[in-house]
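Support request from a user on the community tier.

User writes: "When I paste my structure tokens into the form, the page sometimes reloads and wipes my input. The last time it worked, I copied everything first. Here is what I submitted, just in case something in the input itself triggers the reload:"
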């Protein structure tokens, strides 16, 4: 992959109902979270501000400048519960098996090569604890609005179910986050 991902510097956080999204991602104030494809950390920071001091949010992205920005912002805000790392999501994750209580990916999966998606789902399943949550935020399959211009390049809830089920994920909920986005929540068996 290129050093600067396709949508580096963009965020969908202004297109979602943040309270509703984080209510479906959070599993506890003293849990370990994983933000996959965090960019400059808009979602990471919003989550970290909501959590207690005993929490940890790993934030992974291929974009070094985004990780540096996130690290700087977290330090300025005194958020000691954020651990940003440069990481290629098409490769094995540098996290221990069963070390994460909840993982999420916000409007990133559609930008990853289709061939890399199964491997990533396997890695998410590996790092999550049994009963852990995986929340996928994606753009609805429209031909307009933010996100990919073609509905064929978007990932709908049914697509997400097909992609996650071989890796031990059970669909839990689909939540409408606003005009253009939804959240699909899965539980790891």
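"...and here is what came back when it finally went through:"
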């Amino acid at each position: 992959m290129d050093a600067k991902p396709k949508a580096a510097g963009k965020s969908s956080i202004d297109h979602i109902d943040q309270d509703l999204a984080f209510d479906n991602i959070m599993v506890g104030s003293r849990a370990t979270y994983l933000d996959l494809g965090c960019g400059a950390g808009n979602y990471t920071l919003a989550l970290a501000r909501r959590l207690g001091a005993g929490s940890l949010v790993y934030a992974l992205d291929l974009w070094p400048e985004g990780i540096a920005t996130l690290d700087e912002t977290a330090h300025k805000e005194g958020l000691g519960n954020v651990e940003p790392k440069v990481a290629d999501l098409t490769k094995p994750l540098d996290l221990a098996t069963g070390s994460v209580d909840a993982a999420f990916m916000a409007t990133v999966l559609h930008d990853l090569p289709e061939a890399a998606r199964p491997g990533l789902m396997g890695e998410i399943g590996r790092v999550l604890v049994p009963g852990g949550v995986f929340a996928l935020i994606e753009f609805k399959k429209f031909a307009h609005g933010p996100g990919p211009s073609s509905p064929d390049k978007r990932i709908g809830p049914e697509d997400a179910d097909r992609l996650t089920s071989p890796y031990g994920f059970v669909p839990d909920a689909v939540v409408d986050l606003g005009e253009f986005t939804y959240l699909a929540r899965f539980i790891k068996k």
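Agent notes: The reload is a front-end session timeout and is unrelated to the input. Residues 122 and 166 are 8 Å apart (CA to CA). The domain at 13-188 is CATH 3.40.50.150 (Rossmann fold). Escalated to web team.
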